[in-house]
Design a protein that fits this description.
heterodimer; A: 116 residues; mainly beta; 0% helix; B: 114 residues; six-stranded mixed beta sheet
């Protein structure tokens, strides 16, 4: 079974630029999550998809952030007009309600964003 | 609101010593799920165990064991005979029964020295 994959693994950008990250979940997982992790902290929830529907967005997700999952498979997270405070690890996870480990979230390797 | 507290920031041990990681949680729910994840230097969060609130049976899996005590809201994790490969940040997490998101603690960094 292929795990969750994320691309790119690292991104360095200048303040004000737009960036887009991609997440490919475990195949047949219908739920997909984005989290953000800053240095020395645990991951914090950003948003959640069930199939292609975005069902919840955290207050952490400002208007500059947008996430999509157009066909219920891969997802993208875009940050517009990046700020230095956006520097963090962005983690994607997926889960399936229909497995024995009902709805356990499996994480990808993350995308580390550095905003200069 | 849910809250997970991992009071130990860092633990350093010599190989073959046992390591116990503390996790205390707060929730008003009667049904919930608890998790432990491991994050090695590569950055990927690796799922270790999931425990349902109605299942207080403790578990041993190889060198790992878990002690879930609902009465004290604790879900502690022990590594027996630690190895250098166990060096990582370990996170405890909580999820409500009817919710999707995980609430993580701040993590405990475990360093195992040869």
């Amino acid at each position: 079974d292929t795990g969750v994959s994320q691309d790119p693994r690292h991104k360095i950008t200048k303040r004000g630029q737009n960036v887009t990250f991609r997440c490919d979940p475990i195949s047949e997982h219908n739920r997909l999550y984005w989290y953000r992790q800053t240095l020395g902290q645990g991951p914090e929830f950003l948003t959640y998809f069930q199939n292609e529907a975005q069902l919840e967005k955290s207050r952490l997700l400002s208007d500059r952030f947008s996430a999509e999952r157009p066909k219920g498979s891969f997802s993208t997270l875009e940050i517009q007009r990046t700020e230095q405070g956006d520097s963090a690890m962005y983690l994607c996870a997926s889960s399936s309600l229909w497995t024995a480990e009902a709805d356990t979230q499996y994480f990808g390797p993350g995308t580390r964003l550095t905003v200069l | 609101a849910q809250k997970v507290t991992q009071a130990q920031t860092e633990i350093s041990v010599v190989e073959k010593e046992d390591v116990t990681l503390d996790c205390v949680y707060e929730t008003r729910d009667t049904t919930y799920y608890l998790f432990w994840y491991k994050q090695p230097p590569s950055g990927e969060l690796v799922f270790l165990i999931r425990r349902n609130s109605f299942d207080e049976q403790n578990e041993i899996s190889g060198r790992y064991s878990w002690n879930f005590q609902k009465s004290t809201s604790s879900f502690n994790f022990t590594i027996t005979a630690s190895q250098v490969v166990d060096s990582a940040v370990y996170f405890c997490a909580l999820r409500r029964y009817n919710d999707y998101k995980l609430s993580f603690g701040a993590g405990t960094t475990v360093t195992v020295r040869a």
